[in-house]
Amino acid sequence: MEEIKGYIKKAKKIHLIGIGGIGVSGLAKILVYLGKNVSGSDNNYSPIIKKLRKIGIKIIIGQKEENIKPNIDLVIHSQAILPDNPEYKKSKELNIPILSYPEAVGEIMEEKRGIVISGTHGKTTTSALTVNLFKTLNLSPSFLIGGEIINIGNSDVGESDFLIVEGCEYKRSFLHYHPEVSIITNIEKDHLDYYKNIRDIKKAFSQFISNIKSNGILIYCGEDKNTLDIVKKLKIKNLSYGFHSQTITATNINISGRKTEFECFFNGKKLGKIKINLWGIHNVLNCMAVVGVGIYFGFLWKEIKRGIESFKGVHRRCEILSEKNGITVIDDYGHHPTEIRSTLKSIREIFPNRRLIVVFQPHQYSRTRFLLKDFAHSFSLADKVVVPDIYFVRDSLIEKKLINAEILVEKIRKNGNEAIYLPTFKEIVEYLFEIKKKGDIILTIGAGPVDKVAKEFLKRIS
């Protein structure tokens, strides 16, 4: 890992390529707070751009060489920006220092008490819960996470030394962070367009653990085999959480209505009950990771309980968009087979006897191909599955030729589920409108813009 050399501290004028992204936009706000003259560019206008312009950031729509002036001291780019980007190339030509988003965040974290939440699944909700805990206790954290916390947002600049970051393992981005506290929620096969195999992924997570500051701590899910494989080889202060024989355990889990209640224990001693506004066993695990954070920082149990119980959720994480005319419409960001299974299981627990129609937009051709068998098995709890074309992002055109949505639909059918391929969102909205009936649960799920289907459908039935 190349050493960071204090570029942000030295720079006065900083330009961000891809400033409209959820992470980079948050970083832009932090840089403004640090007194930097910030500009940026993005290919698309969005509400995020509008908000950034309100705080005085000059943003150009469209990425062109002429956007990069010789007086820029530092260029920061999102992970989606490739070396053939015209602004990236011009920055190189002018010998302007260039940092990726995680490199820049890592540099800022060096002077903060960093808390980084990582893992294949659950990291956004766990990050959001951590932010909510600190804000509830008026600890004023700065934070950068990959989802919009209801009533809070995805990023903010706080007055304290705490910096809470959602750490993504893609391209080993999280290895630029040296936090005081690291959380690993779980480790599974993902991002196989970059990683060779699960062994390669586990190696990256091992390196991530080794980056924890010497006075810091690892908080990890002791129920996850892949995480256990790497943790047992490392000597570091740690807290494990789970349901059996862990430092922090949850028992007597009760899912009632749209809330989940459980009892929490630390080293075998009962701390008390927690009742959360979230569904499912996986969210109990997410909460216990945050209990671990609270214990590490010495918070009182009543403070931890209040910080978790007051959490309203994250947009696009099993979010109920509407309940109209007897039809419930839910939207979720899940884009991995394990996430799909967990979401469907949670919905079935809350709505056991209603028809469940799932609109799943696969995210990435490579992910769909590598995990095809797992995806095909992940819809067993759905009554009907509707699949549009795969969301094209980060893949090569060669990858696009190797797999398509129709292949996935055929595999789902072979597993005994009713499935249909409809290429466009417009066709899907029409289809849903035709087949809808009172009592239906309609779930849109995927990391792409599949939530547009839910919103268009709601316009139709209004």
Give your account of this protein's structure.
- Helices cover 35% and strands 24% of the residues.
- The chain has 462 residues and is of the alpha/beta class.
- It has three domains: 7-101, Rossmann fold (3-Layer(aba) Sandwich), CATH 3.40.50; 112-309, Mur-like, catalytic domain (UDP-N-acetylmuramoyl-L-alanine:D-glutamate ligase), CATH 3.40.1190.10; 319-461, Mur ligase, C-terminal domain (Protein-Tyrosine Phosphatase, Chain A), CATH 3.90.190.20.
- Helix 6 crosses helix 9, helix 6 crosses helix 10 and helix 9 (281-296) runs antiparallel to helix 10.
How would you summarize this macromolecular structure in one to three sentences?
This protein is α/β, with parallel strands linked by helices and 462 residues long. The chain contains 17 helices and 21 strands. A ten-stranded mixed beta sheet has the order 8-7-9-6-10-11-12-13-14-15, with helices on both faces. A six-stranded mixed beta sheet has the order 16-17-21-18-19-20, sandwiched between helices.
Topology (elements, then pairings):
Layout: H1 7-10, E1 13-17, H2 22-33, E2 37-42, H3 47-54, E3 58-61, E4 74-77, H4 86-93, E5 98-100, H5 101-109, E6 113-118, H6 123-136, E7 142-149, E8 153-156, E9 162-166, E10 181-184, H7 198-210, E11 217-221, H8 225-231, E12 238-242, E13 248-256, E14 259-266, E15 269-276, H9 281-296, H10 301-309, E16 319-324, E17 327-332, H11 337-350, E18 356-360, H12 365-370, H13 372-377, E19 384-387, H14 397-402, H15 405-414, E20 419-421, H16 425-435, E21 441-445, H17 451-461
Parallel strand pairs: 1-2, 1-4, 2-3, 4-5, 6-9, 6-10, 7-9, 10-11, 11-12, 12-13, 17-21, 18-19, 18-21, 19-20
Antiparallel strand pairs: 7-8, 13-14, 14-15, 16-17
Helix pairs in contact: 6-9, 6-10, 7-8, 9-10, 16-17
